[in-house]
Amino acid sequence: MTKSRHSMLTSLLLVSGVAIAIGLIAGYPGWILAIALFGWAIYQIRQFNRLMGWFQADSSNEEPPEAPGHWGELFDELSRLQRSQAAREQALRNVITRFQDSSSALQDAVVIIDRNNNLEWWNQSANRLLGLDSRTDRAKPVMNLLRDPRFIRYFKRDQYNDPITLPSPAHSDIQIQYQITRFGDGDRLLVARDVSRLIRLEQTRQDFVANASHELRTPLTVIRGYLETFLDQELPRPLLRGLGSMQQQARRMENLVSDLLLLSRLEASHQISDEQPIQIHSILQHIIEGAEQLGQEKQHKLLLDMDTHYDLTGQEIELHSAFSNLVYNAVRYTPAEGEIKVSWWVDDQGGHFSVKDNGPGIESIHLPRLTERFYRVDESRSSASGGTGLGLAIVKHVLARHGGQLTIKSKVGKGSTFSCHFPKEMVIKAVDMDESEDDLSESGHPPVAS
Ligand code: ADP
């Protein structure tokens, strides 16, 4: 371009020089110069108009006009730029076509949602799985098309660490797992996967466990009944010892069966449906009494520290089961004369229940797996304690159904703290304050010692 500018100046100087020379010979230098400059300007305007004409016509298809000198150079330069631009466009188009072809071949639905929550692009599977229509739904708000309130809550929550599974809006018998990822400037990528088969398999597994546990119940009750009858008889000592041990194992199996049945019931739905106000105060008193009996010989120091001004809404039997599992675990695993502190308090995050002990503690490598069914840190210690190996799995499920979370902190040799955190929407003001206050010690927190 600089070269063109120079050659334009050179041509102007050349025209002016020649015009002045001819003008001097002819005796009219001024007139001749003016006429030459006028002619030069007309030529430039004409070339400029040709350029504009080429631009205004479909310049990508037509060759640029031919011209001598700097205009020719300019046209060539523009033509070269145009060709490289066209090559780049074609390469980009190829990439897009390949991306569209590969995403069309995907079984999962992929949807791009812009920063205003409108649908920008989606693949063919999205039409099938989510019922989107490429002709009518482009640029429509995603929440107008995927209207399930649970999806809308998930979408608005803006925290997409975990996926959500819901029935497909197009076919209610298809279960879809939605996962959203943020990208660019507030855009979102929604991936929806058909997980119906996985859910059916999971359902079959749950049904099997529930049915097997249910079927085991009756024979176990019969065995236990006979064992009790035999143990009431005058029998030789070795036989009595054997029957006693059989009775103990039968009781263990009964506990196992009832924990398995409870877990199956908890797994059947992800949310509680019958939530009621629960008096935390009375639940905890009841659990503490049970803990005192369970740990009678160990002489634990059992402390209860609770904010009696607040209660929870939820499912009482489930929460009782979760809290008692944590307290009884602490009693079972904490050695004699250890200290166990049970707390309930409320802050601006929500309601919190925790059980802290100064027992043996748990190595950090075990912590992530502790809530798995039958996961045990120390098999011999757990069997001796009489646990079923399902306690923490039950706690985790109960909390998930209440929108809560379980956290575990532990240090080997120092002790463990198991805490349940409930969202603040579940916390309510305690109703029966008078009765609650009667139970308070001076500090406001009644210590209960066993
Ligand atoms: P279990 O019926 O065997 O107690 P849980 O699911 O309740 O099963 O607990 C899983 C494992 O976690 C236990 O086997 C035990 O090793 C460990 N555990 C649970 N609570 C405590 C605790 N308070 N202190 C030390 N270990 C614990």
Question: What would the average pLDDT be, to the nearest integer?
Answer: 88
Domain tally: 4
Strand order of the largest sheet: 2-1-5-4-3
CATH C-level of the largest domain? Alpha Beta
Percentage of residues assigned to helices: 40-55%
**Global outline:** elongated
Low-confidence spans: 436-450
Query: Any idea what the CATH architecture of the largest domain is?
Result: 2-Layer Sandwich
Strand content: 15-25%
Question: Could you give a short account of the major beta sheet?
Answer: 5 strands, antiparallel
Number of strands: 13
Total helical elements: 13
The CATH superfamily name of the largest domain is: Histidine kinase-like ATPase, C-terminal domain
Explain what the structure shows.
This protein has 450 residues and is of the alpha+beta class. It has 4 domains: 2-100, no CATH class; 106-194, Beta-Lactamase (2-Layer Sandwich); 199-267, Orthogonal Bundle (Helix Hairpins); 276-443, Histidine kinase-like ATPase, C-terminal domain (Heat Shock Protein 90), CATH 3.30.565.10. Helix content is 52%, strand content 18%. It contains 13 helices and 13 strands. The chain has helices at residues 2-26, 29-56, 69-105, 124-130, 142-145, 149-157, 196-231, 237-268, 280-294, 316-333, 379-385, 391-401, 433-438, and strands at residues 109-113, 119-122, 164-167, 175-183, 187-194, 276-278, 301-306, 310-314, 339-347, 350-357, 405-411, 415-423, 427-429. The strands form 3 sheets. Strands 2-1-5-4-3 form a 5-stranded antiparallel sheet, with helices on both faces. Strands 7-9-10-12-11 form a 5-stranded mixed sheet, with helices on one face. The longest helix has 37 residues, at 69-105. It is elongated, with a radius of gyration of 40 Å. It starts with a helix and ends in a 12-residue tail after the last helix. 22% of the residues are buried. Adenosine-5'-diphosphate (ADP) binds at residues 325, 329-330, 333, 357, 359-360, 362, 370, 376-378, 382, 387-393, 416.
